Amino acid sequence: MRKVIGFVLCLVLGVLLATQVHAAAPMELAFWGGWTGPDGDVMRAMVHQYNARNPDVHVTLTTLQWTPLFDKFLTSMRAGEGPDLMAMHPQDTAQFIDGGLLEPLTAFGANVQVKAGDFDKNAWGYSSYKDTQYAVPLDFHMHGLYYNVDLFKQAGLDSTHPPTTGDAFIEAARRLTIDAAGRHPGDAGFDAKNVKQYGVAFPNNHHAFYIWYALVHQQGAGFSIGGTQVNFDDAQGIAAWKWEEDLIFKHQVVPVGESNPAQDFLTGRTAILIDGPWQMPAMQKQQGLNWATAPFPTVFGRPAVWGSGHILTVPKQRDRAKQVAALDLAQWIVRNSDFWATSGNIPVFRLASETDRFRRLQGRAAFVSMLPYEVILPNIVKSAQVFSAAAPSPIVQAAQAATLRNEDPATIVRTLRQRIDSVLAAP
Amino acid sequence: MANLVRSAAAAGPLARTVDHAAVTRYLFLVPYLIVFALFRFGPIAGGWLISLTRWSLIGSPRWVGAANYRALWHDPLFWVSVKNTLAFTAVAGPMLVLGGLALALLVDQPLRGRHLARVMIFAPYAVMSAVVGVLWNWLYDTNFGILNYYLRLVGLPVVAWLTNERVALAAIALTTVWWTVGYNMVIFLAGLQEVPVELHEAAIVDGATFWQRFRSITLPLLTPTTYAVVILTLINTGQVFDQIYVMTAGGPGTATLTLVQYMYYQAFQTYNLGYGAAIAYATFVVLLVVTLIVQRLFRREVAA
Fold first, then answer.
1. Cα dist. A187→A182, A190, A255, B53, B156 in Å?
2. Containing H/E element for A198?
3. Does the distance separating the beta carbons of A204 and B252 come in below 8 Å?
4. Tens digits of residue pLDDT in A230-287
5. pLDDT tier for residue A31 given thresholds of 50, 70 and 90
6. Could you give the domains of chain B?
7. pLDDT tens-digit readout, A271-290
8. Are A138 and A310 in contact (CB under 8 A)?
9. Chains A, B: CB contacts under 8 A, how many?
10. B57 touches chain A (CB under 8 A)
11. Please, what is the end-to-end C-alpha distance for chain A in angstroms?
12. Is there a shared CATH topology between the A26-142+308-375 domain and the A144-304+379-425 domain?
């Protein structure tokens, strides 16, 4: 009986408290982003800080992997229950703008306090679509090299001068690949079935396509999508796939079919990793790993590296006050993005990338130096159909034909072009 | 006489009471029927309608008639996913049914620790599919997985379980067997309890061996149970999704792209909702055909 009375009392008290709180309820803001790693924790900490500073607003951050997050975004927007602030990548906006889901920044007038000059010039440009600004850019991320300093020294390589060209990259990787008897690929009697340490951890998913994308840009003609056609030079496309395949199957410096390249690098089984800055928190945590970063090598004529970034968009909704509050939140996050940089991402707000807090962070300089050479995927309405990271997509099929099957590069290029064109031509 | 009159007079109202009872019975069904209509029949019918449209979640659906189905017929990835689904069923199905039966026979013996064994074999079934996927991703890891660790220990070459196109589907089948074989075992175990002990006792008196008793008593009497297990296994393996989504997402290449995986890709990863719905209905047809064939085989079995 006493328990029951106690329970009822608690309930009454609870209801009273709840109504009390309700009297001064802050504005609730929903903020969604696809940050499911350590980056999610960093953003949550930022939101927490923002809430503490702004008692009249309460922001809730929801994180899910990007693809399910966009499903949730599309269905919630239909139901009129979308988020107030939505993070995405520059190449994601066209499909949502085409569907009328995003508010252009021009609709906010004087509430927009950041301007083009505050940002890296590429970042601001990437946040617009058909000459209209739709987002506040937050960060960039791009491929770079992570390398194991100790393994470099053991192999007699200069750990202060990591490879910058394709040939130097292959030569370093060759010397870093060691079989059970201490021989390297190319040496007489090298035992490819019994390799103790590999030179390079190379992706076999959509990131292998991103590397191809960079290598195509390095050859000059680039890659673009116009109307119902994909444009790139066949010979350049073939050369790029061939470089990837040779690395794996001819030079034998990459383990075929790695299930977790980053893990292999972290534990010293591979000496070089091609990956994005989001790996840096894991690198810092790894005990005994002596790591450094270097720019993505220039294999062909000119430097180019695949990249993307995060941008903050304000979805359409009836409640104007919430939209304005969401924009305020976005601008606060961007201004304080030197803290966001601890998640590995490279802030594009100039002042944030010039603070001591940012400069003290290990490994960022190499990524920052690549900002001018970053090439992002074309921002098209059909980006999900063409560039999906899921296995059946045209780009992943091409990537795995090269990295797992060593297929004829000319066939890969032909199939890739056919599949992208057929997706573009479909109504 | 008075009795007769009374019963004649009662006949009218009584008949009405019977009617009431019938109505009441149906009324009791209403809550379920509402839920069924809303969450089962509604989506099934809605899915059919969606499969006749082009719809990207954004904007309104546009009626295209049978165009999605026509496109499906000419879509190589669809046929790859049909082939993979059937291959998966052909590999995992027999292991699940025969394995379930063998385990049920084993833990039905009066051995010590059989209760613990039953629990342990069934336990994986209670684990969430995502957890199963992550767990087996670790076991199968090319460089750090325990499976390859043992292969190395005995001097065998390591296998890239989930990144080799030739083994990935079989690896996922193995995971599925580990995960769900306990469920089939429980159904078989229940079926075994229905087999009369006297038959076995009489057979033992007649000098029948274990194998003879199994062939002539247990197996025939288990037929209804086996039928249920086979059909359930077919339907479940035909709809395989969770573990593939977590472990390979359809790759490497298209090695583990199954029908439901492809449906998910079209509907929710590339926003072709109408096309995805068409794949769902095609899956339904494939499963229906396979189920009908199996049903016919069993009927013949029962008739013989």
1. 10, 6, 18, 61, 24
2. strand A195-201
3. yes
4. 999 999 999 999 999 999 999 999 988 888 899 899 999 999 999 999 999 899 999 9
5. very high
6. 14-67 (no CATH), 69-303 (1.10.3720.10)
7. 999 999 999 989 999 999 99
8. yes
9. 104
10. yes
11. 69
12. yes
Nearest to B165 among A263, A384, A404 (CB): A404
Q: Is A424 on the interface with B (CB under 8 A)?
A: no
Structure-block tokens of residue A387 = 């560039």
Instruction: Check: CB of residue A403 under 8 Å from CB of residue A208.
Output: yes
Task: Judge contact between B241 and B276, C-beta under 8 A.
Answer: no
Overall size of chain A counted in residues: 427
Mean per-residue pLDDT pooled into runs of 10, chain B (304 residues): 46 59 88 92 93 87 93 94 95 95 91 88 91 91 85 86 90 94 94 90 89 90 92 93 90 91 93 94 93 87 61
The pLDDT score that the predictor gives to residue A48 is 96
User: What CATH fold (topology level) applies to the domain A26-142+308-375?
Assistant: D-Maltodextrin-Binding Protein; domain 2 (3.40.190)
Search chain B and give the residue with CA nearest A96: B58
Q: Could you give the CA distance from residue A223 to residue A230 in angstroms, rounded to a whole number? A: 7
- In A280-403, which ranges are E strands? 291-295, 305-313, 346-347, 374-375
Asked if A263 has any chain B CB less than 8 Å from its own CB, the reply is yes
Q: In a mutagenesis test of the B interface, which of A258, A259, A395 is the best target, namely the one with the most B β-carbons within 10 Å?
A: A259
Which pLDDT tens digit goes with each residue over B65-89? 999 999 999 999 999 999 999 999 9
Q: In this prediction, what percent of chain A has a pLDDT beyond 90?
A: 73
Which residues are CB-contacts of B182 (< 8 A; sequence separation ≥ 6)?
B100, B103, B121, B122, B123, B124, B125
Task: Return the amino acid letter for A355.
Answer: T
Assess B163–A contact: CB distance below 8 Å, yes or no.
Answer: yes
Search chain A and give the residue with CA nearest B145: A259
- Measured between alpha carbons, how far is A173 from A244 in angstroms, rounded to an integer? 13
Query: In terms of Cα–Cα distance, which of B217, B216, B211, B221 is closest to B190?
Result: B221
B59 Rama sector, left if φ>0, alpha if ψ -120 to 50, beta otherwise: left
- CATH classification (class only), A144-304+379-425: alpha beta
Give, in order, the Cα–Cα distances in Å from A213 to each of A27, A74, A345, B226, B227: 44, 29, 21, 54, 53
Residue A363 and residue A284: Cα distance in Å, rounded? 10
Q: Which helix (H) or strand (E) holds A334?
A: helix A320-335
Q: Where are the domains of chain A?
A: 26-142+308-375, 144-304+379-425
CB neighbours of residue A247 within 10 Å = 22
The set of residues, in sequence order, having a beta carbon less than 8 Å from that of A193 and lying 6+ positions away, is B157
